[in-house]
Amino acid sequence: MRILGPALAPGALVFAAVALAGPAMAQTKWNLPSAYPADNLHSENLAQFAKDVEAASGGKLAITLHPNASLFKAPEIKRAVQTGQAQAGEVLISLHENEDPIFGIDVVPFLATSFDASKKLWAASRPAVEKKLATQGLKVLYAMPWPPQGLFSKTAVEKIEDLKGAKWRAYNAGTSRIGEAVGAQAVTVQQAELAQALATGTVTALITSSATGTDVKIWESIPYFYDIQAWLPKNVVFVNQAAFDALDKSTQEAVLKAAAAAEERGWALSETKTKAYMDQLAAKGMKLAPPSPALKAGFEKIGVTLTDAWLAKAGADGKAVIDAYKK
């Protein structure tokens, strides 16, 4: 017995150490679906966010990014996170304007047309967006803008009337309304299907960012780009509140710290890449130009009409956000 006792002791100690280490080393895994290609600027920022979370949490939380609508299509992502089919997600928040007007505030035409203005608008609207998403069991992590939205067209456009009858790509309620306002035929196409829609002629005109244009190689189908800088839409990254609450305190802090860094990095990244995207469009032979005075005036007139329509839907809460933004 005196021989066996010491021989067993190390094994027992190892077993005990493994048993104690098990819970501490347990890894929580989150799936995070996105609608954009892996090399898109938003996906790049998400990938860095996931790395930062894993590092800051000491490996306790691993986030797997599913880009290019590979797990859920763009309109399905928010619902998937609400119902726990995915723990976190990224969406173009204006896709859900029909649920609440506050989700569409950043695509009100010509309300915020620069990065500084867009950041100010996000600061004014974030509390309202967070409040609404909280009622749906979602917690906002961060937001990141797209480059300013420009007009792409198969044919030259000197005035609003030149868009009449065009096959107009819409991706949310706001772009559908603009299509109607210019007399175009609106067709809903999300980014994952946009390249095919352009190639087949399903879409001949659209307002989107230079980043999206680059993603889908828009120069293969569309020769004209007008830098109207209509708005800067945002993607919002959020998490299922129950999934967040299930994390220990230190891991929650790691997520929030990484999210804050991703938001700051994302705004800078979008602004930095805007010029590179524009340069690439030009290098591919596209005809880039500012809008003519007539085209600019036409869009601004539409902007006033659609702003009034948005305010009528959004009511006092929407007006309060606009007032805060304009201070």
UniProtKB/TrEMBL annotation:
Record's keyword terms, sorted: Signal
Species whose genome carries this gene: Xanthobacter dioxanivorans
Pfam families to which the protein is assigned, alphabetical: DctP
InterPro entries the UniProt entry points to: DctP_fam, TRAP_DctP_sf
PANTHER family per the UniProt record, alphabetical: PTHR33376, SIALIC ACID-BINDING PERIPLASMIC PROTEIN SIAP
Signal peptide: 1-26
Superkingdom of this protein's organism: Bacteria
Keyword Aminoacyl-tRNA synthetase carried by entry: no
Name used for this protein in its record: TRAP transporter substrate-binding protein
GO terms (BP aspect): transmembrane transport
